[in-house]
Amino acid sequence: MLKKMRHIGIIVEDFDRAVKKFEGFGLTCNEVIDREKDGMKIAFFPIGDTLVEFLSFSPDKGWDPMHKVVRSQKGAINHLCFEVDDLDASIRDFENNGAKLAEGCPRPGAHGRVAFFQPETTEGVLVELCEV
Asked: Is 80 a residue whose pLDDT tops 70?
């Protein structure tokens, strides 16, 4: 039986830049694991009861069978949505850290006001903010 969502894993190209950018967006990186022998770096960002996990792989290490499966994942998470208390203030925080708002945002969403950011400005991750 499934109990709860533990984490959402995202492969990032530039590990240090991605960690710094998402810390600038207000997430706190509470753990970094550097598995040099596997050519892998992992960062965890707790948000509520879930963790956002960033993974980065060295191109010349870590090609055991399990890593091959993880690295070859073709399906992708569409976006991460973070609930915020003040959408306008959160948009300003994101923009101050280099994120660019998607055209037409903010706007009414399925549940409250929402804003999406251009993924090329959020390390390739489509980020949505939602004020419920």
From this structure: yes
